[in-house]
Amino acid sequence: MTEFIREAGKKLPAFTRDIFSIRADSDLAQLALIHAGAGIGACQVALARRDALVRVLPKVFALQLDTWITMYEDLRASLRCRATFDALAAGLERYARARGFQGQ
Q: Helix, strand, or coil here: 72?
């Protein structure tokens, strides 16, 4: 079970896999279904804005999920891996702050 499903289940107890006529475990497949007009779907607000999707039910259905950046402990000593990790972390932090995301 994904973090999204767990959080959605807490906020909306009736939110179970069984209530959906079309569903996909892949985030990319879900986004493709939304774009194809298969019904109402959930995605990150920034993606929806980028793709000019219309947000519905923002007061009823809005989840705040954590974002984690991780790497294997034994790779921390690798200068290439560390540089890549640091650049990714800095880029994600800039992205999140520019869009007013909480919890940075």
A: coil
Mention every residue, 6+ apart, whose C-beta is less than 8 A from residue 24: 30, 33
Structure tokens at 52: 């000019």
As a whole number of angstroms, the distance between CA 36 and CA 10 comes to 28
Fill in the DSSP letter of residue 102.
S
98/43 Cα distance (integer angstroms) = 19
Distance, in Å, from the CA atom of 71 to the CA atom of 81, rounded to the nearest integer, reads: 9
d(CA 84, CA 102): 24
pLDDT in tens, the chain (104 residues): 677 778 778 877 887 778 888 888 888 999 999 999 998 888 888 888 889 999 988 887 787 777 889 999 999 999 999 999 999 999 999 988 887 776 53
